[in-house]
Amino acid sequence: MLEKSVFDNKTIKSVVKDKYNIDVISIKKIKIGSANIYSINDDEYILKEFQSKYKEEDIIKEIKVINHLKKDNIPVPEYVKTKDKKYYFIYNDRVVIMQRFIKGNTLKLNAGTREQILESAEYLGKIVLSLKTLRYKLPNRNISSWYDVDSSVLKKEKISYKVKGKYKDKVINDLNEKMYFLNYIKDKINIEEMIKKITYMKTHGDYNVLQFIYKDNKIIAIIDFATSCKMPIIWEIIRSYSYIDSKCKNGDINIDNLILYVKEFTKYIKLNKYDLKYMPYFYLIQLLCSDYGYKQYIEDESKINLLKFGIYRTKISKKLLDKAHIISERLLNEIEC
Hints:
The chain is of the alpha+beta class.
C-alpha cells in the first residue's frame, strides 16, 4: 500500500541540496512498488522514501547486504552518500535514501522467457551462496502465521462476515475455498516435520521478477534488499519461479520449468530431501493461510488492485493443490540432494 509522501517538490529540492549538495533541476514521481520514489535530474538519481514500517535498522541491514553482495559481483544498486558520509537520512520520521539511477526496464508478472527464468534461478543461487559468508546477522523471518492452519481458518471466518461491495460473492467464495482446502491439506501433510526439516538460509526475502531491472533482456540490477532475512529457502525458490515464468499465467505451475529452475539454483546451493519433498506444500499452505489482498479490500473497497493480486495468488494455490504430489515426487526423483 502506497503511503502519503512526506515530500513535495519544494521540500525535495531543499532537502537534497542540504543533504547531498545536489541542485535539483527536475523531479518525476515513479509509480512502482510500495515506497514513494522520485527520479531526480532526468534519471540521474533516485530518491526513495520508505514506508513508515521501515526503520533505520532495516536500511542499515540493506546497506550491509548490498555492500557484501557487490564484492561477489552481484548486480545491486549504488547508494549515494550524504555530505555526512551516511547512506541514509531521516525526514519526518521516514527513512530516505538516494541511489544512482539504473537505466533499464522491468518485466511484468509471468512474462519471462526460458533464458530469463534460468537467469533468475542463477542469481538467487549466487545471492544465497554469497550471504553464507555475510558476518552481519540477519533476522529470522517470523513465519508462524504461514502454517497455522486452525488460526487462519478462524480469521477467514471472521473477515468473511464483513465483506461488502461489488466483489462480495467472489471474495466470500475464495475465502470459503481456502478454508476448505486448508482443512483438507492439514490431514495430508506432516506440518510439524515440514517446519523442522526444511532448510533455513539467508536470502533476499522478497526475491521475484518485480525486483529485477533489465537491459537487453538481461538482469542488470536486483533491488530492495530491505527484506533480507533467514527463512525457508524453498519458499523463495518456488515463489520466484511462479512469478516469472510466462507459462504460469493464470496461476498455473509448469512442472518441467520448475524442475529446471531448481536444478539451476542447486548448482550453487544444495537442498535436502525434505526441501524437495515439501517445497510445493510449504508454498501451498502459505498461500492458503494468507488473506493478503482480501483483507485490504474488505477494509477499503477501493483497493481493487490488491484484491486482484489476492485472487491471482488463490489461483496459484488451486493449481498447486492439484499438482503438489506430482511436483514433490519429481523433485525428489530428478534433483540431486
